[in-house]
Amino acid sequence: MPSLTTEDFIRAQIRKIISEDKEEQPEKEKKKKVKAHTGRGSFSNPVREAGALAEVNPGQLMKNLQIKQPPGGSSMEKIKDVIDQAVSGADAMQQAYNKTHAVKKGDLIAIAIQPGELDVRDATKYMSHTLYGAYRSGFLQGIEEDLHVEKAGEGVIVYLGKKDYMWREQPGSIEYIPDTDL
């Protein structure tokens, strides 16, 4: 039977090996997400179909919506470019959305989108599917925070943030800003 000190030595070595294994395993990078905050209930068929396509074949969704890889720039510039391409590309999107603006509320910068023929809830979900498809297609690489798409009054708001509902919680009033400030 080994002495107590030998057992202690063996245990210490085992602990050391186990802790080294844990240190060597890199932490998995948290996947960035596109989050939509729309409330409960079902969506219209075109909105559901866009969601399915964004999941199964995001490249085809980008092709259908006539969205191309955005040029470089900040994360918000890339997002704004994808949104602008989306609302000015395919006929269905031109009817679904009207205008986009860069806006600021407190310290948070966002893109405000005015829905056209879609109600705000469907417009919010449709835009989240569009941005999710762009993200999955690699068009929005380099985004360091979650992308949030929310209903905001009679429009849709898109921003980057670490937690949900940051736009609602942000103090201050909404200011329109030039796209160059993104």
Secondary structure: number of strands: 6
Compute the average pLDDT: 83
What would you report as the Rg, rounded to the nearest angstrom? 23 Å
| Total of DSSP H or I helical runs spanning 4+ residues | 7
**Structural class given helices, strands, pairing?**
alpha+beta
Which percent range fits the helix content?
Answer: 40-55%
Number of structural domains: 1
* Shape type: elongated
For the terminal residues, how far apart are their CA atoms? 71 Å
Give helix and strand order, one letter per element, not per position. HEHHHHEEHEEHE
**Reading side by side through the largest sheet, how are the strands ordered?**
1-4-5-3-2-6
Low-confidence stretches: none
Portion in beta strands = 15-25%
Main sheet attributes: strand count, strand direction, barrel closure = 6 strands, mixed
